[in-house]
Amino acid sequence: MKKPRKRRGPFQFLQFSVIGFSNAAIDIGTLNLLLIIFQPDARGWVIVCNTIAYTLAVANSYFWNASFTFKNTAKGSGRQRIGFIIQGLISLGVNNLVFLVVTELQGFLGVPNWLRYNIAKGFAMLLSFTASFFMIKYFVFKDQPHFMENREKK
Fold this sequence. Notes:
It is built from five helices and no strands. By secondary structure, it is an all-alpha fold.
């Protein structure tokens, strides 16, 4: 007899969100540290700082989400690792694009650099976090039908 599947979506999203706060701390903390150390004025260097910060946060995300949030479906397979890297690159693109656009828009308003970088980072994290959750849940760590369940259906 087949057991009914538990709905994990809301709980997974809650776990993902809690881990997201630690990712945000790493992301924002690293970005601000790099901005203080290097004080970049050129747009390209600001994006490099953002990319480094985001990459550290994604590494943290993989460890905790594979260990807790999606532990029932995280197999550590090559497919999942490649999928996680691909979703990370897509999310990085979203993050950098939003970061750049919001930074530039605020530049027209005369917002000081440190403030506009942090406001832009907030918007970038929100959008890339949302995209990342759905890509991880439905593509990287998606539930695979169990072999025995498929045999019973035949």
